[in-house]
Every structure is written in structure tokens, then in C-alpha cells.
Amino acid sequence: METYKDFYIPAAILLAGIFIGGTILYTGGFDITPERTAAALPAGTARDAVQSNGSTVDFTITKDDHIRGNPEAAMTLVEFSDLECPFCRQFHPTILQALQEYGDDVRWVYKHFPLDGLHPQARPAAEASECVWEQKGNDGFWQFVDAMFEEQERLGSAFYREAAEQIEVNLAQFDDCVSTRKYQNKVEQDYQQGIQAGVSGTPGSYVNGVLVRGAVPYSQLKSIIDSQL
């Protein structure tokens, strides 16, 4: 005769498998940050740059934002990213493909969202990217970001300096900028803006304010873009 005990262990294993499987499906292609919440923000900073109407989020794009593509494009993709996140690395060429296909119709805005608890080099890399931007503008910034994702396994101060040198920055100025953490507030402001928008991990992107969660395949991103054009 089969009893309750006969089913107890297999059932427990099955339930555990369902729970773990569900978690993997929910977070697939997505690094989650569990340890930080939104800080109190003064007027005129990240809080004012994000407006939500329930189903979409509106971002105020300024001259200090990092834009790739046509600055006046009708379609805006805002990505909150982490330079040490493997899923962000996976998603990076996906957005590049969208820019190539849609041309002047789409602009890509990059925002920093370093997951400090998971990726210790994410914030230093983000701050270094801003030090390149200081000298070389958005072209230099994007070259640096591309280099970080192309050789993500090399993240560290020596690699940041090497990449910056290849972009032909003034290294003395770059070193001073990095060592004094000149742009730590700018990076943190991006992070807090993401928290205000509802970002909980990376990559977290918004296509004309519609959330795209994780490193979705190109076919899915294309479908979302087409629905917003």
C-alpha cells in the first residue's frame, strides 16, 4: 500500500524543481540587484528626469546623456546597463543591430546601473567611461564602452587606462579624473534614475518608455520597436 510518506520526498523534489525552474525563467538574461533601494533625491536630479504614467516611463534626455544614433530620432531606447554584466554584454550587439536596421529612426541612450554586490568592477568602469567622455565626447565614450564589452574579462584599472590610451585621451588628465572619482555622482545619479523608473537589474531598457527586461533576442526587440513606430 502506498502511503503519504511514499510521495513526500518525490513531491518535495518536484516542488523544488518547479520553484528553481520558475526563478530561472523569470531572471533569464537578467542580473538582479537585491541590495539597494532608491535614495532620497533633491529636485533637479534623477527624480525629475523620470515620469511614469503607469504603463510607460518618460525620460528627460539632456546634453549630458550618452546618445548613439540620430539625436533627433522619433524612437528612443534607454538602456540601464552594467559594464561587468554578462547579459549586458550579450545584449549590446542586439541594440547595435537595431540601430543598423532602423537607421535615423532610433536613438540609443546609455545609462549606468552598476550592480555593486555582483560586479565589483562595474562602478569603476562606469566612472572611467565618464572620464573618457570628458575629453572625447560621446564618440570616445561609446568606443570605451564597446571595448569594455569586447574584452569584459579584462576589466580593471590597467585595462581602463589601456583602452583610454587607444582612444587618445590625455592620460594624465584621465588618471586624475579616475583617481579623484570625479564622476561618481553622475554614475550614481544614473543608478538612482533607474531605481525611480523601476529598474531592478541589468540590462533594463525602455523603448519609448516601454520596459524591455533582460537580454531579449533581436526578434523580440524588433517586435517591440515596430509596435512603437
UniProtKB/TrEMBL annotation:
Protein name, entry field: Thioredoxin domain-containing protein
Membrane-spanning parts: 7-26
InterPro entries: Thioredoxin-like_fold (IPR012336), Thioredoxin-like_sf (IPR036249), Thioredoxin_domain (IPR013766)
Species this protein is from: Candidatus Wildermuthbacteria bacterium RIFCSPHIGHO2_01_FULL_49_22b
Keywords tagged on the record: Disulfide bond, Membrane, Oxidoreductase, Redox-active center, Signal, Transmembrane, Transmembrane helix
Domain Thioredoxin positions: 35-229
Family: Belongs to the thioredoxin family. DsbA subfamily.
GO molecular function, one term: oxidoreductase activity
